[in-house]
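Researcher: Quick test of sequence recovery. Tokens follow.
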């Protein structure tokens, strides 16, 4: 068994067994918000939580990660999941300032993908020295697409590692003072079936008054990155946030900037993760249910 698989299984074991730190005090247990409700996101936005969904706010999500020894960024805004399906969504807010969309017509998917492949090749050298299996970037599942009306940027990259699919599905919601980073965690084989529900969920997302992209004022902080940089390195802000159970890190040779490829966990793992957080029945070994 590879070193990475060992670490991943160890992380799963911690989640399923429960955290000693969380068990010490009932007041430290995560507070779960169940839909229908409005879920607050880092004091800058909110998302409508439909019936059949459960939500952890950023503070409780961060507390859970700390208790499990997972790295945190301080930018965690929320974690939600349907209670009867095997996918989840992570929200994090990067307070980097107003991202200009001047390069919206210059997003060259081929060049961006080539940069990501070069970075992956460099990272594979690091992986090899650590006994971690290499990653092969297959290509775009969906090339970067900017929606000028909503100021949303989305893209998806597909790859493989030891014959297992890897999927990185990202959405960036641009606001006046920063970017809400949204990561869909889903089994790659279930992406097409999940996307309609995920996108419908995001129609219930909104920035608070005073935080929208259209409310930018002269003198506001302007980000030092554009849309292309969000694709190449913007997700790196979220790299350490999600920990082993979600992310694999790869490095860009030029400047050693981070690019991230999400590890799409198997259905049983996601099911058990959600069970750990939201109290759902855990999957039984070998049943997938």
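Model:
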């Amino acid at each position: 068994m590879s070193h990475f698989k060992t670490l991943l299984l160890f992380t799963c074991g911690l989640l399923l067994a429960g955290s000693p730190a969380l068990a010490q005090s009932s007041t430290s247990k995560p507070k779960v918000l169940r839909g229908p409700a409005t879920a607050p996101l880092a004091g800058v936005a909110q998302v409508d939580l439909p019936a059949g969904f459960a939500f952890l706010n950023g503070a409780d999500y961060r507390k859970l990660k700390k208790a499990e020894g997972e790295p945190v960024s301080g930018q965690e805004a929320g974690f939600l999941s349907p209670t009867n399906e095997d996918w989840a969504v992570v929200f994090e807010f990067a307070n980097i300032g107003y991202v200009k969309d001047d390069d919206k017509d210059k997003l060259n998917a081929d060049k961006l993908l080539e940069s990501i492949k070069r970075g992956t090749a460099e990272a594979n050298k690091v992986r090899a020295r650590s006994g971690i299996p290499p990653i092969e970037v297959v290509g775009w599942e969906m090339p970067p697409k900017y929606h000028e009306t909503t100021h949303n940027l989305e893209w998806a990259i597909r790859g493989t590692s030891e014959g297992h699919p890897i999927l990185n599905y990202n959405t960036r919601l641009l606001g006046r003072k920063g970017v809400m980073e949204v990561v869909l965690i889903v089994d790659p084989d279930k992406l097409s079936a999940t996307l309609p529900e995920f996108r419908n969920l995001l129609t219930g997302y909104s920035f608070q008054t005073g935080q929208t992209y259209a409310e930018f004022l002269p003198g506001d902080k302007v980000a030092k990155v554009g849309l292309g940089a969000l694709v190449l390195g913007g997700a790196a802000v979220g790299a350490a946030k999600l920990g082993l159970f979600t992310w694999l890190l790869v490095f860009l040779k030029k400047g050693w900037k981070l690019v991230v490829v999400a590890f799409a966990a198997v259905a049983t793992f996601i099911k058990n993760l959600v069970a750990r957080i939201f109290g759902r029945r855990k999957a039984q070994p070998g049943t997938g249910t």
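Confidence is low (pLDDT under 50) at residues 1-27, 234-270, 282-289.
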